[in-house]
Amino acid sequence: xxxxxxxxxxxxxxxxxxxxxxxxxxxxxxxxxxxxxxxxxxxxxxxxxxxxxxxxxxxxxxxxxxxxxxxxxxxxxxxxxxxxxxxxxxxxxxxxxxxxxxxxxxxxxxxxxxxxxxxxxxxxxxxxxxxxxxxxxxxxxxxxxxxxxxxxxxxxxxxxxxxxxxxxxxxxxxxxxxxxxxxxxxxxxxxxxxxxxxxxxxxxxxxxxxxxxxxxxxxxxxxxxxxxxxxxxxxxxxxxxxxxxxxxxxxxxxxxxxxxxxxxxxxxxxxxxxxxxxxxxxxxxxxxxxxxx
Length: 293
Ligand SMILES: O=C(O)CCC(=O)C(=O)O
What we know:
Pfam families: CN_hydrolase (PF00795)
Organism: Lunasporangiospora selenospora
GO biological process, one term: oxaloacetate metabolic process
Radius of gyration: 18 Å
Largest sheet: 7 strands, mixed
Keywords: Hydrolase
Strand content: 15-25%
Family: Belongs to the carbon-nitrogen hydrolase superfamily. NIT1/NIT2 family.
Bound molecules: 2-oxoglutaric acid
Structural class: alpha/beta
Order of helices and strands: HHEHEHHEEEEEEEEHEHEEEE
């Protein structure tokens, strides 16, 4: 089964057949054994770092800040490094078209490729506003690099964040963004990893499909807010983890009360039992966990 097309009903048919309790795929008899044996066979530690960056309106400064932190994470032993959603631009629908660039040769992807290569890490490059030069549409896109600095996968946020909680928060990504239509997974020597962006975590299916296709982790660059963050940020990560008995990591920007959007922060790494391995507060910083122990 190739789970790269959300529009393909076969994907959902097969995924739903594999729900816990469905014939032949009881979750406890299947995933736990597979995950544990993967650790033993590979015998490798999988140190991950989530970088909760302070994001400003200055794109070159954001890229330089990201680079410093990626190099720091690598020097502390991380092999997988994650940046936050929208790390090169303020998070806001008015900013997306202004900051958008091509993922073929834009300044941000060049900088990300160099960071991955110089740090010798897999880099899950948060997300950036992407302008597709063929259709001129703007997407919220995560680009992923191997330790040679090669772009190995891209994920365009599938579920756009359109919310209106009266008196609390109104945000309509669809005012300026277009949704992606593919699920994303990539291979590493540490195992296969699935990727979603922020609001994508509210939908169980991408994580479920990734787990059933052998991913040991789902990684979500994200930027929850002060309304839904306290309520759902950790809950959703722990739910996706325990649903699928896989690692889940979500990496936020730091909170900036002078920005138009106040990110919740609290980047978090959750284990396959739904246990919080590492988390943080709202400030800039790096958290680490070993996904192999
Ligand atoms: O789902 C939420 O509550 C927040 C989602 C979000 O901030 C985003 O998708 O950027």
